[in-house]
Amino acid sequence: MKRWIVPSLARRIVPSLALQACMVLAAMAGEEPKTARAPSDQYDLIFFDEKRPVLVRLHVRIDDKPCAQVWDEFLQSLFKHLDADGDGMLSLAEAEAMPSPQDLLSGSTFSQAKVNLKRVDVKPKDDKISLEEFLTFYHQNTQPFQIVFTQAAGNSTETLNDALFKLLDADKDGKLSKEELANAEALMKYDMDEDEILTADELNPNRNPANPFVLQDDTQPEKTMRPNQPRPFALVQPDEKGKPWRQELQNRYGKADGRLKGKLLSRQDLGMDEATFALLDKDKDGILDAEELGHFTERPADVELMIRLGQRGGNEQVEAVKGDKPAALNAQLRSGKPLQMTLSLGTTLLEFRCKETVLPMLNAMIAKQVASAQFKQLDKDNNGYLDMDEVKAANGQPGMEGFAAAFKQIDADGDGKIFEKEFIAFIEKAFQVQAKAMASRAVLNVTDQGRGLFDLLDTNQDGRLTLRELKQAPNILAAADRNGDGFLSSDEIPRTFQLMAHREPVSGNRFGKAVVVVARMGGMGQQRDTGGRGPLWFRKMDKNGDGDVSRREFLGSQEDFDKIDADHDGLISLEEAEKFDELVRKTAKKE
Q: 308 — phi, psi (to 5°)?
């Protein structure tokens, strides 16, 4: 039997046949019934910092609605369409078309997974499935908001960090002085494309042969964190049994003294202020027992953020929640570019970002083309249709499991033959449903970026180092020198966690609350946006778009450059260009 090969692109954009082609996206439009569950946009995240646990409260919204509401609206519209006779209940025959939770979330390959209807029809087991039973089943097996952990293989950030340290540490004492940081401009010799911009790749010793400090292999793809590796974050589920994060709090912050047996925690152990601790310490004995600790999230959060995906109505993607009383750590938040918020916790940084990666409907056209190519490969006798024998021949091959089981649903006219038009129509309808499902959920991808000197130097967080940022390198010493000795050591560089919210489909063969593997997300920096400001000559000369004109970019003489460069730092800034241009205009007017 010839092996059926499904291209990686096809596996991503062609959804599971088990989603059933009868679910037409058009039926999802219009007014939807209200869910019995009150939707909420609030999710609590516990970060296990070295010194204390931090309660982060996220409000996650899609198209300015709570993501739980958006997911419920999708499920309700799915129920409405499956209810072919419109009686408000699903018969067992109608329920046969219910997609399994795995297929609903994976969106990758054909599947033969079936829903066990006995698990759905639980009350009163009348061979009918109500909307309440339908929603309960999917609420128990899917989540509108999910946290996913990844970690870069080879610790590429650590590799780059160590290399940068060695490049700047001229006296090789393991520390960076202000004088050594002032020499950071010398790193421009690793600017391979000579654009006066340094990227991480250009400084990476494993990718740039000019960098002598080859440390380790970081070319492998990003992978999931090991199951037995302690998680730095815990997403609190409202109906979670056992509250596993409670044990994690006890293990991490319990003292090895007389309280070890009960793992009881004091206010000092948890780093809490008196007012917050008093809310949890119900018996006022100065110690939180296991039961009291279980209410850890039932208090004001340490930091509270709003995350918006999709249409935002002019609001920021990530911003601090403005309430009557700001969260305790909101003052330690700073905004950056692209739209993000960074929480500074001493030697740890939490970067909250958003990324819109929902598959565009344009991919439906690609899905149609792939489906057409697949049909031609399956049609072995070239008679223009597929019979059951041809379908069965492909059924057991990778990526086509369950194909035969869907034969009757693809065969729209019931003539025992699947024509190309029927096959493509089935794929298109299923793709639309899958795209709607993808757009109705949110995922928070957490990546441990390690300790990064590059990130400290990259003051505007655009993923590249400009001449100005290198010239300003000594300025990072004041903020990063934790012990006040006048030097920057590697352990003083903050460890960074990137928390990226997006609507990209979760990959892998697990679903719901499970940890799965996703591809690393990120991107190259963008040019500084000057808003079209500045004289025309300034904008033309600024070839690399970093918002400055260097001596190399400047087309005039050194004398002219020095006149414009008022602070004599070797760069003409936007402000200096505008000031000089205004002076020239005034002089010309007088003459």
A: -120, 130
For the stretch 64-108, pLDDT in tens is: 999 999 999 999 999 998 898 999 999 988 888 788 888 777 654
Whether the Cβ atoms of residue 84 and residue 97 lie closer than 8 Å to each other:
no
Report the number of distinct structural domains present in the chain.
4
Instruction: Say which CATH number the domain at 585 has.
Output: 1.10.238
Quick check: bond before 338 cis, omega within 30? yes
CA–CA separation, 255 vs 270, rounded Å? 11
0.85 surpassed by pTM: no
Same-domain status, 309 and 271:
no
Distance CA 357, CA 439 (A): 9
- Is 381 part of any domain? no
Determine the Cα–Cα distance for residues 448 and 498; give it in Å rounded to an integer: 7
Top mean pLDDT of 248-257, 299-308, 431-440, 452-461 is at 299-308
- Strand locations in 405-517, DSSP E? 418-419, 442-451, 464-466, 488-489, 495-502
The answer to whether residues 321 and 288 belong to one domain is: no
Q: Is the peptide bond before 124 cis (omega within 30 degrees of 0)?
A: yes
In percent, the amount of the chain with pLDDT more than 70 equals 75
Q: Tell me whether residue 109 is exposed, middle or buried, using C-beta atoms within 10 angstroms of its C-beta: 0 to 12, 13 to 18, 19 or more.
A: buried
Name which of 574, 463, 565, 483 is nearest 529 in CA terms: 574
Residues 337 and 283 in one domain: no
Q: How far is CA 298 from CA 43, 51, 55, 133, 279, in A?
A: 12, 21, 10, 29, 9
Instruction: Assess contact for 97 and 82: CB atoms under 8 A.
Output: yes
Are the C-beta atoms of 166 and 213 separated by less than 8 Å? yes
Q: How confident is the model at residue 273 (pLDDT cuts 50, 70, 90)?
A: very high
Which domain, by its residues, includes 552? 536-590
SS3 for 5-17 is CCCHHHHHHCCCH
Within a domain: 578: yes
Out of 274, 293, 312, pick the residue that ends a domain. 293
Instruction: Quote the pLDDT of residue 400.
Output: 63
CA distance 337 to 508: 31
Residues 388, 392, 396: CA angle, nearest 5 degrees: 165
Assigned domain for 548 exists: yes
- In what helix (H) or strand (E) does residue 313 lie, and over which residues does it extend? none
Report the CATH number that the domain containing residue 199 is assigned in CATH: 1.10.238.10
In a domain, 199, yes or no: yes
Q: How confident is the model at residue 125 (pLDDT cuts 50, 70, 90)?
A: confident
What is the mean predicted confidence (pLDDT) over 351-362?
A: 68
DSSP of 233-286, one letter per residue? EEEEPTT-SS-HHHHHHHHHH--SSTTTTTT-EEHHHHT--HHHHHHH-TT-SS
Asked whether residue 307 falls in the same domain as residue 289, the answer is: no
